[in-house]
Amino acid sequence: MNETSYKIRIKGMLLSALAALLIAAAMSPAAAAAPGEEPRHAVSGQVRTLGGTGVPALIYVYQSTLEAVTEAATNEYGEFSVELPDGDYILDVRATTGSYALSLRHEVAVDGAAVSLPAIELSAGTVISGVARFDGVPASSVRVQLQTVGASPKLVDYATTDANGRYRIVLPNAAAAYHLLVPNPDPNGRPAWETVNVGYHGGAGGGGTGGTGGAGGTDDAGTAVLNRPALTIELKDGQASASLGGIAWTSYIEQLQGDLSVQAPADAMSFALSVSPEVLAALFEKSESSAFAVTLGDVVYRLPAVLFAPDRLRQLKEKVQDGVEGQWTLEIVVQKATAAELALLRESAEQLGAELIADPSPAAFSIRAVYGENRYEWEDFGSVFVSRTFQLSSGQSTAGYAGVVATEGGGLRPVPTLVREASDGSAFVELRRNGNSLYALLRMEAAFEDVTEDHWAHDSIGRLAARLIVQGDGDGRFRPNVTVTRAEFAAMLVRSLGLTPKRSEGLFKDVTEAYWAAGEVQAAYDAGIVRGLADGRFEPEAMVSREDAAVMLARASAFAGKQDELLAEAIATAVGRYKDASAIAEYAREGVAYGIVNGVITGKPGALIDPDGNATRAEAATFILRMLRSVELGQ
After folding, report:
1. How far is CA 42 from the centre of its chain?
2. pLDDT, tens digit, for every residue of 454-510?
3. Quick one: CA torsion of 572, 573, 579, 583, rounded to 10 degrees?
4. Is the dihedral of CA 380, 386, 392, 396 positive or negative?
5. What is the CA angle 29-31-35, rounded to 5?
6. CA-based nearest residue to 554, from 598, 502, 516, 613
7. H/E stretch holding 459
8. Phi and psi dihedrals of 201, rounded to 5?
9. What is the C-alpha to C-alpha distance for residues 391 and 261, in angstroms, rounded to an integer?
10. CB-based contacts of 519, cutoff 8 Å, min separation 6
C-alpha cells in the first residue's frame, strides 16, 4: 500500500467514525436529565443478520404495558442507542432495508445504569403487500396484523396502511399458517376485525401464499375486503349464540380466501351457530378445500367444505322438511364438558388405567338440521373426517396423548390422534373422526412384559396400545407372536379409524348378534373394509392371512380418503420383487401392491412376501400404524 492510499483510507475511517458518532448523537437525547425529569440511561445494541452482518433498522420501544414510548433508528451498521428512564420495556425491531421478519418482544429492564443488549438477529422473510379497502375506498392509517392461526394466535408482524391503503408486512420463512387481520374503520361495524387467510407458508422452497421463501421475495396478498357482514353474538350465562345467513354472507364468501372462521367470546362455555344452507353451499362452491371453522376457547372445530356438497345438503333437507318448502338451517354447537360429564369421563378413564386431561377441557360437538319443530341429529359423516383441535397450555408435555370419544353406554373409544408442534413452540392435539359426540384427551402409558424395548415391533405396539387400538391379555402380556383372527383384525381397524360399532344386520351366517365382534364386523362391512365369502360366511375365527390383511388395509385407506389406483404395471413391479409373488391370490394382488408401494407391509427375509402366512399380533399392530401414518390419521 502506498502512502497516498494509506492517507485516503485513514481519512475514510475517520469520516465513517465521525458519521457514526453524529448519527448516535442525533438519535439519542442527552443522558443528563433536565430539572424535574427522571434520569435516563443508555440502552444500546446492534441489529444484525444471522450471519453477523449489521442491518439498518427501526427500534420501537414500548412499556411492559405495551404503551408506546419512542422509536429510534440504527446507523448503517445496525448499531443503536436510546436513552430511557428506569423501568421495564419491550423492543420490537424492523429492518428498513431488505426483507427480514419483524423481531418481537425483546424485554429490557433499566435500573439505574446503562444497558448493553445482546445482538438482535433478524431472519430472512417474504414480503406480503396489499391494499385494505372499506366499501371500495382505500382505508388509510389502519393497523394490519399478521398472526398465526390457532386457538391462541400469536402476533407475527404489523404495519399501518398509507394514504392509499397499502401495507407491507413480512412472513417469517417458517412453516406455519397465518391470518391477516385488518381493523374495520366503521365504528359501528362488527366484528372489529376482518380476517383474510394468507395461507400456509412453507419456508424456503415455497408453499401456500408464502412465496419462494427467500430473502427479498415479494408476494401480493391482494385486497383485504372489509365488508364482512355484521355478526351479532349473544352471550347469556356463558352460552353464546349467533346466526349466519343471507345474501350478504354468500357474497362475502365469494371474495373469501381460505376458511370461514367464527370465534366465541372468551368467557363462553358453549357456542351455538345457526347457519343457512346457502352459506355452506357457497363455501363448497368457492373451494372444496376450505372449511367452516368454529373456535371455542382452546378448541377449534373445523368442518371441511366437502361436508356441505349439494347431495349432502339435499339429504339433510329431506330429513327435516319431507317435501315441504321453507327455510331450514343447520345448527352447529360446540360445548365444553359439564361437571357431570367430566366426572363420568374421569371414571371411565380410570377404569382403563388412563388419566383424563381436563385442560384443555373435553368438548361436545353436534350438528343438527332444523326446520320449525323438526330436528335431525347429523352424527355420521361417512368417509369425511372432521377435525377437532385442542391447544395445549404453554409448557404442557406433548407425549402420550390419546383422543377418545364417549359412547352412549359411558365407555370410551379411540379416535385418530395427531400431535403437532408449531414453529412458535405452541402445541396442538388434533382428533379426526367422521362423527360427533363428546371428545376428550387421555394420557396413558402402555407396557407389556413380553414386548421389550429391543423387540422389533415395540414402538408400534406401544403407540397403538396407548391409544386403545390394541390391548393386552390382562396379565401384563401382549403375546406379539400369536396369530390374529379375521374378526380381531377387523375390530383393530375399526378402532384405528374411530368408527362406532354398528348393530348387526345378520349379513353373515357365522356372525350372530351375540358374537363379541358383531358390531365391529358390521361397522367394517359398512365402511367397505370387509366383504365376506361368496357363500355368505365371514369366518371370524379363521386366522387372517397376510394377503387378506393387506386387502383390508387398502380398503381402510380408501375409506379414509386415500384413493390411489395402481396401474397393472405398478402392481406387477411392486409384487415382482418377491420370489413368491406367484403365490399371491389374484383378488389380493392390488391390495398387496398397495401395501408395498405405501410402505404399509414389507416382506420377510429371503425376498418373500409370504401371502398365505398368518399375520401375528405384532405384524397387525405394525401394519395398522403404518396405514394410519400413510392416510395422516396417526403418528
Report:
1. 44
2. 999 999 999 999 999 999 888 889 999 999 999 999 999 999 999 999 888 888 999
3. -20
4. positive
5. 95
6. 598
7. helix 458-466
8. -105, 120
9. 17
10. 501, 502, 503, 504
Which of left, alpha, beta for 607 (phi over 0: left; psi -120 to 50: alpha)?
A: left
Query: If you write DSSP's letter for every residue of 193-255 in order, what string do you get?
Result: EEEEEEEEE-STT-BTBTTT-STTEEEEEEEEE--PPP---EEETTEEEEEE-SHHHHHHHHH
- Identity of the amino acid at 293: A
Question: Which one is predicted more confidently, 560 or 97?
Answer: 560
User: Which run of H or E residues covers position 294?
Assistant: strand 291-296
Task: Tell me whether residue 354 is exposed, middle or buried, using C-beta atoms within 10 angstroms of its C-beta: 0 to 12, 13 to 18, 19 or more.
Answer: buried
Alpha-carbon gap, residue 310 to 277, rounded angstroms: 10
For the residues 176-198, what does the mean pLDDT come to?
A: 61
The single-letter code of the amino acid at 298 is: D
- Which alpha helices (H) appear in 483-616, and where do they start and end? 486-496, 518-526, 546-559, 568-576, 589-597
391 is written with which cell numbers?
Answer: 391447544
Give pLDDT, residue 521: 96
Report residue 376: phi and psi, to 5°. Answer: -135, 115
Q: Which residue has the cell 365444553?
A: 336
CB 495 within 8 A of CB 469: yes
Using DSSP's 3-state secondary structure scheme, residue 280 falls into helix
User: Which has more confidence, 526 or 422?
Assistant: 526
Q: Helix/strand/coil (H, E, C) string of 99-114? A: CECCEEEEEEEECCCC
| Separation of first and last alpha carbons in the chain | 65
How far is the CA of 29 from the CAs of 75, 86, 96, 150, in angstroms? 16, 15, 22, 42
Three-state secondary structure call for residue 75 = coil
CA–CA separation, 448 and 474 (whole Å): 10
Distance CA 505, CA 511 (A): 10
Q: What is the pLDDT of residues 217-235, one digit of tens each?
A: 334 444 444 456 778 889 9
- pTM higher than 0.85, yes or no? no
Q: Give φ, ψ of 586 to 5 degrees.
A: -60, -40
Contact in structure between 70 and 29 (CB atoms under 8 Å): no
* pLDDT, tens digit, 9 for 90 and up, residues 99-131: 888 999 899 999 999 999 999 998 888 777 777
Q: Is the dihedral of CA 424, 427, 430, 436 positive or negative?
A: negative
Q: Which three cell numbers stand for residue 224?
A: 383485504
pLDDT at residue 179 greater than cutoff 60: yes
The C-alpha atoms of residue 369 and residue 374 are separated, in whole angstroms, by: 8
Grid cell 402476533 in the structure block, residue: 155
Q: How far apart are alpha carbons 417 and 8 in whole angstroms?
A: 69
